[in-house]
C-alpha cells in the first residue's frame, strides 16, 4: 500500500458448495454477503468496530477462509496506521415525529376530499353530483351511515 492511500473495506469471498450430483465440479469463488464471525475473531477484529467501519458481518456463515482473514488483517493494519476513513454515523429519525401517511397529506383522492383540497374544477366537471348534494338538504339520519 502506498503512503496517503485511502483503503476501502475488503469484499468477503466464499466458495460455492461442491455438487456431487453433476460429478466433482470444482467450487467457484463468489462474493459473500459478509464476513463470518469466525473470520473476524481469527483476524482479531471486534464486531462493533467492523460494523462501524462499514464491513458487512454475516452471522449465518460459519466457515473461515484464509483469504478473508488475510484481507481483514490488512484492513485492520491500515486502520491502525490511519489510512482508513471512518464513515459518519447515520442519523435515525426521531420516534416522536413519524412520517404522515399519503392519505393524511392529501396525496390520494380520498385524502384530498377529506382535507377539503378538492379543486373548483372538480365541482365543474361533476356538477350534477354537487347539485344533488345541495338539493338533498340536511340529513335526517346521522352522517356516519353515509360515505360521501
Explain this structure to me?
The radius of gyration is 31 Å and the shape is elongated. The mean pLDDT is 78. The protein has 6 helices and 2 strands, in the order ββαααααα. It has helices spanning 37-43, 47-52, 66-81, 109-115, 120-125, 127-136; strands at residues 13-15, 29-31. Helices cover 35% and strands 4% of the residues. Helix 1 (37-43) packs across helix 3 (66-81). By secondary structure, it is mainly α. The chain folds into 2 domains: 13-81, no CATH class; 100-137, no CATH class. The chain has a two-stranded antiparallel ribbon.
Structure at a glance:
By secondary structure, the chain is mainly alpha-helical. The chain has helices spanning about 35-45, 45-50, 65-80, 110-115, 120-125, 125-135, and strands spanning about 15, 30.
Amino acid at each position: 500500500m502506498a503512503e496517503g492511500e485511502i483503503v476501502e473495506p475488503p469484499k468477503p469471498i466464499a466458495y460455492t458448495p461442491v455438487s456431487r450430483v453433476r460429478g466433482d465440479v470444482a467450487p467457484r469463488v463468489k462474493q459473500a454477503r459478509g464476513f463470518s464471525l469466525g473470520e473476524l475473531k481469527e483476524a482479531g477484529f471486534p464486531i462493533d468496530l467492523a460494523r462501524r467501519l462499514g464491513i458487512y458481518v454475516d452471522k449465518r456463515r460459519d466457515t473461515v477462509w484464509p483469504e478473508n482473514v488475510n484481507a481483514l488483517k490488512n484492513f485492520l493494519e491500515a486502520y491502525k496506521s490511519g489510512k482508513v476513513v471512518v464513515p459518519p454515523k447515520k442519523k435515525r429519525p426521531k420516534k416522536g415525529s413519524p412520517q404522515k401517511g399519503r392519505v393524511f397529506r392529501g396525496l390520494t383522492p380520498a385524502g384530498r376530499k377529506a382535507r377539503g383540497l378538492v379543486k373548483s374544477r372538480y365541482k365543474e366537471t361533476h356538477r350534477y353530483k354537487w347539485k344533488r348534494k345541495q338539493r338533498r338538504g340536511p340529513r335526517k339520519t346521522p352522517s356516519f351511515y353515509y360515505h360521501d
